[in-house]
Structures
1.
Amino acid sequence: MAFPATRLRRLRQTSVLRELVRETELRVSQLVYPMFVVASGPKRTPIPELPGIDHLSIDGAVEEAGIAHGLGIPAVLLFGLPASKDPEGSGAWDDEGVIQLATRAIKSAYPDLLVITDLCLCEYTSHGHCGVLREDGVVDNDSTLELLARTAVAQATAGADAVAPSDMMDGRVGALRAALDEHGLSETPIIAYSAKFASAFYGPFRVAADSTPQSGDRKGYQMDPANALEAVREAKLDVEEGADIVMVKPALPYLDIIRRVKDETNMPVAAYNVSGEYAMVKAAAAQGLLDERAAVLETLTGIRRAGADIVITYHAKDVAKWLSQ
Ligand code: PBG
């Protein structure tokens, strides 16, 4: 009988030992909580596609931000559903637009809570694409940059602590940095959705944000799920253009991308555990197929282990409660 020379089980014997050698930590201070703010309507309306998440009025958003803040969550990420849409998405940069109003209201109630604004036109355009649509149905890159720049300035002027461009236009980070700097907003960080893939996992979000493209798809600007080298190029370009934090989105089918982007850029990396990833766990848990708490904590720990410093997740409030128990 040969005995094993190395016994890895020695350090797994008790929870104290396991904790002593644990390599990855999941903390509430690393979480960002996304919220959907509606220009008009009731304080809260449940979103059926995202169980546990509501459409919020401005008052509702302030209340929800207060709850997140009270749980120790450091940041919220705001998405807006405007009162009306047009082909250019002008509601995005309106000083009285839904996100600008919500940002001002939340910052005045909770100055210490970080407000990150998602920066994209798809919730504001009547056609649902993330930029200006040409006659041939293609999103025009460079005229979109101008509108995104206006939006960044409007959001930061309203008090956003960071802007997060999610449109995937070429050159947007440089354009936003220049516009912010010109307007005296050089201290506003840019959290770039650098490697954002054309994913099926945005389905519930698009219903919640009313941002499904009316024609075609987003494959002409969001990335091909098959490409990793290109994701690294995207991230490096965003860093050159001035991104302060780079993001990979979605998270679960792209854990290898999170790792590569972390290793190749050495930047703070955020990962977005998107709506479809959330909805899958909720649906399985509701059917009794999964232990929700264990599955969520394992998932988010995996995203952290892959290299994400920051995790954006609809589970944030639950996780904050579980981690404090
Ligand atoms: C806007 C945007 C999307 C998401 C975040 N910002 C949707 C899309 O690109 O269609 C998805 C987030 C989620 O699924 O939770 N461009």
2.
Amino acid sequence: RFDVSPPWLNRVIEGKPRQFVHAVDGVSFSIPKGKTLALVGESGCGKSTVARLLVGLYQPSAGQIAFDGRNTAEWFAAKDARDLRRRLQMIFQDPYASLNPRWKVGEIVAEPLTEQGLLTDPAAIRARVAELLSLVGLNPLDSEKFPHQFSGGQRQRISIARALATEPEFLVCDEPTSALDVSVQAQVLNIMKELQQRQGLTYLFISHNLAVVRHMADQIGVMYLGRLVELSEKGELFARPRHPYTRMLLDAIPDIHMTGRQRVAVQGEVPNPLNPPSGCSFHPRCPLANERCKTERPALMSFQGVQVACHAVAEGRA
Ligand code: SF4
Ligand code: MG
């Protein structure tokens, strides 16, 4: 369970005025072992903030995050924090920026092993790096090359190999294929799925792309301006989207149900996350908004097993 409130945002912004962090509030979910929860939403909705909170890059000011039943804020500060860091890893969006260009691939992949003190013998490190590169479909001889000698898709495989070095159980994947060509995206996603099945990995998968999420997720959480507005099983979300924002996102996917329906553009702009609209923050863009929506923020409530935050759904007029 995970919950973060606005005072935390204000502290971060006061402390580092040039760093922009999106507020996240009232976001609560759990991910069963071996499953994938995807968070979707337009940029600025707080998805990356959630990702960074989970791996301890940011501290929540309220609420809590638990991994394997243990509070992570306490665990990150405890003597055995290294064990938690080993078990949680993150894959970032941009494989160009996240790989040190001056290091050989072998050194990049080996870094978590040496940093965590898991392996010290050079021959054992080399063997493990070769194994990891094979796991993601690269050649063990690639360890002698530099990142610039690889394509975007190959670089993301290198990032994945590095993330897997410590044998993590939980991977936070923040838009892992968004920087890649469409043709390469599917290859990387398939590798991630295969690795999940083989190694029983659990994923938090972040994307703005519902087609990608459809391929990867078991459960989907839709975020809007720092809040979870719908949380549902994947099949249910695509078959019966409840929240008007979820419907808008689904309508923007080209012909997902092969109905010959025209693609509808997502309407309107995302408001400034630092100054969200009153009431339901989606109201300026919502076709179902009424007076209540402008003043009263809808709580996330359960409808037939689906969590939705919308007055129209609660009133039975959606
Ligand atoms: Fe639209 Fe109102 Fe529902 Fe918000 S609460 S999504 S404005 S109908
Ligand atoms: Mg992001």
